[in-house]
UniProtKB/TrEMBL annotation:
<protein>
    <recommendedName>
        <fullName>Pyridoxal phosphate homeostasis protein</fullName>
    </recommendedName>
</protein>
<dbReference type="InterPro" id="IPR029066">
    <property type="entry name" value="PLP-binding_barrel"/>
</dbReference>
<dbReference type="GO" id="GO:0030170">
    <property type="term" value="F:pyridoxal phosphate binding"/>
</dbReference>
<keyword id="KW-0663">Pyridoxal phosphate</keyword>
<feature type="domain" description="Alanine racemase N-terminal">
    <location>
        <begin position="15"/>
        <end position="237"/>
    </location>
</feature>
<dbReference type="Pfam" id="PF01168">
    <property type="entry name" value="Ala_racemase_N"/>
</dbReference>
<comment type="similarity">
    <text>Belongs to the pyridoxal phosphate-binding protein YggS/PROSC family.</text>
</comment>
<dbReference type="InterPro" id="IPR011078">
    <property type="entry name" value="PyrdxlP_homeostasis"/>
</dbReference>
<feature type="modified residue" description="N6-(pyridoxal phosphate)lysine">
    <location>
        <position position="45"/>
    </location>
</feature>
<dbReference type="InterPro" id="IPR001608">
    <property type="entry name" value="Ala_racemase_N"/>
</dbReference>
<comment type="function">
    <text>Pyridoxal 5'-phosphate (PLP)-binding protein, which is involved in PLP homeostasis.</text>
</comment>
Length: 257
């Protein structure tokens, strides 16, 4: 008897990870890069800790959060599993203290006020922190990230802040289903990194390029990505806050909430 197999949530997530891993592997081989040179970061915004745990137990070791609030909530729930946590969202200066409590890298440093606030707090705590500089390579207004034309000035200002270990660069890139249209964003980030190293504005080991998502990871790998960030292609479509609230209300049987 052939019964249509339905995967459990756990099997589905593991299957999705294998698919993404396979694509990354193929892309690395085609680009002549070693698969170890590219890490997969799981973008886990709105994903429940027990679901994230499935992915970590399947061997994934790098997760990224967008909101300090979620970071804090999940930290407790995930304290028994080993993983590296990066902050990948827009970081408000008044949330710096909490963000650095949970993150080992802040990928979204995009302005001097934020860098200075981080530095001040890290000095106080006598610690250092890995950071990436987020660049708005698509030049879309309203998007976080420093404009490519301003990045070297920003780096000059950040350079003296010795608590910040600049490890490389991050970009979100153009939102377009056509990966070829996104490619110039990835090229720009790579060129920015190479130029920054050449000018001595960042250390020679500031090689990280966090770029590429599920739709364009092959292109990103061709352009030199070292970290790919994937969320919904692994965990499924995100439940919005409104949906979440409704489902919660329904689960509580509170129809008028
Ligand atoms: C959510 C997010 C991703 C992943 O996006 P998906 O569409 O869920 O794959 C990557 N980078 C950042 C900064 C994100 O916030």
């Amino acid at each position: 008897m052939h019964k249509q197999s339905t995967l459990s949530r756990e099997e589905q997530i593991i299957h999705n990870i294998q698919t993404i891993r396979g694509r990354m592997q193929d892309a690395c081989l085609r680009a002549g890069r070693h698969p170890d040179q590219v890490r997969l970061l799981l973008a886990v915004k709105t994903v429940a800790p027990e679901i994230i745990k499935i992915a970590i137990e399947a061997g994934e070791k790098l997760i990224g959060e967008n909101k300090v609030q979620e970071f804090a909530e999940k930290y407790e729930a995930l304290k028994n599993v080993v993983c590296e946590r990066h902050f990948i969202g827009h970081l408000q200066t008044n949330k710096v203290k909490e963000a650095i409590r949970y993150a080992s890298c802040i990928q979204s440093v995009d302005r001097i006020a934020l860098a200075e606030k981080l530095h001040k707090r890290l000095l106080f705590e006598q610690r250092q922190m890995d950071v990436l500089i987020e660049v708005n390579t698509s030049l879309e207004p309203g998007k976080s990230g420093i404009a490519p034309g301003e990045v070297f000035d920003l780096l000059k200002s950040i350079k003296p802040l010795e608590t910040l270990r600049i490890k490389g660069f991050m970009t979100i890139g153009l939102f377009d289903a056509d990966a070829e249209k996104v490619r110039p964003c990835f090229t720009k980030l790579r060129e920015t990194r190479d130029e920054a190293i050449l000018r001595g504005l960042v250390p020679d080991d500031a090689q990280e390029l966090s770029m590429g998502m599920s739709g364009d990871l092959e292109t990103a790998i061709e352009e030199g990505a070292t970290i790919i960030r994937v969320g919904s292609a692994i965990f499924g479509k995100r439940v919005t806050a409104t949906d979440h609230h409704r489902q919660y209300a329904e689960a509580q049987g509170a129809a008028q909430l």
